[in-house]
Amino acid sequence: MGWRSQSLLGVPEGALARGLYRSMGYTDEDFQKPVIAIVNTWNTICPGHFNLKQVAEAVKEGIASNGGMPVEFGSIGPCDGIAQGHEGMTYILPAREVIVQSVEVMMEAHRLDGMVLLGSCDKTVPALLMAAARLDLPAIVVNGGPMEPGDRHGRDIDVNEIEVALGEYQAGKINQDELTYVEKSACPTPGSCTMLGTANTMSCLAEALGMSLPGSATIPATSAKRLEVARASGRRVVALVREGISARTILTPEALENAMRVGIAIGGSTNQVLHLLALAEEAEIPLEIEDFDRLSRETPYIAWVMTASPYDMVDFHRAGGIPAVMQELLPKLHGDALTVNGKRVAENVKEARIRDQKVIRPLANPFKPDGGLAILKGNLAPDSAVAKPSAIPAHRLKVEGPAHVFDSEKDLITAIKDEKILPGAVIVVRYEGPKGGPGMREMFSPLKLLDGYGLADQVYLITDGRFSGSNRGGFVGHICPEAAVGGPLAFVQNGDRIAIDIPNRRLDLLVSEAEMAQRQANWQPPAKKKTRGYLALYTELVQSAHRGAVLRY
After folding, report:
1. What is the pTM of this model?
2. Which of 203, 311, 446, 546 is disulfide-compatible with 217, CB 3.0–4.6 A?
3. Apex 398 CA angle, 202 and 408, nearest 5
């Protein structure tokens, strides 16, 4: 018995810990077993986590059946949807770091041997992966699965339809009855929202990394197979402890590159850039933001999933899911990368097949010849900016227009509702970066409102904030350096011409260098928005988005 919990539970030195465990019904037989944590982000606020209590019970059964001692503790799991469009969104990205710290504290304080990490949503899955990398203990990620699609008069929809319908209502295009119908129809079951937003992107990437069992990421929340996978994950984590296979044995540079290629090939959320950079930091793997662009240029776009298409995550699962994508990409992947089931990538996907080419295409016949991400640079983004070509209409990949500047997301939302946004504008939303927000809000609500007002394909939105993986239209985010630290975005004025050239990876303000230097000399840093509480601390410690918005102490 080489596992570390024996330093607490051994005889006779472990009498105190054993006595405390006995108060909860554990026995001498349990103390001879590896102690496996179930890290559970279950709550009744976030629909993606609503079923995790049931999933956790299945994991416990699996752990116990393979000779492990299951213990469980919770962590937070916020809902990006409920936090959209108001001050609450400033806490969402910072929540990622809270989850990482909470897992570290519990695992280290109690010298637990391994962990099954339960989470489904935008910040929880990357946070759980980051915790696994930091602790380097045997670990498996289990998600709760995507929800079933909603319906709007015979058309499959996801939660985004609500914001689109709200924009339509406010623009006078639909009545209150239709808005209420959409609201009640969009989310028919628990689960992560049924489009390829950040939540499902990161669950898919956990599988591509080898940190979840093959084929598990896209199993719907309502499927019995979700519980089968939970039990199997519980059994397997005990084996990982006995075999001495820790998280960093799986989380290698090759695994990270596999995940990046998969995320690009499926047109995943732009937030994957932020989270994979942060994961690399925790795993101590060298990774630069330019690596995403390099891989995107040579990785075809082969999966077409909502909101880019009419096909939701359940359709994607039925079409073959991540195994089918990885089988097609295998010539470009590291097929010998180890995964948590003890097998190599190539072995895991050798029997996978595409079952619906409307959703997943062969590598030889992709939806687009290159991938779903682009890293831009220019005098507006000296360090970097992130775009998602797979979500932008082809005729909008290269545009120029006048700047319409806002110093917060809230001000933009007000302007949209007041119908002050004109076609052709390049909307600038600044002071929403990791430090300036603070917390790097995502611009979900304004883009959906613009869609409802019929402007999504007629304007661009650029920001030092983020975007939801569900957004589509013209947008560029993660502009670095951010405005709050004196990035060039701070110097843009209404009416300035801005050029966006995604094929050539450029984002430029068409103002002379002399004028830019004068504006910079006259600029004053804004006052900090938070001086107390967690966000005040976060503002001091958070790094640039092009470094993953990690905390540096």
Report:
1. 0.95
2. 203
3. 60
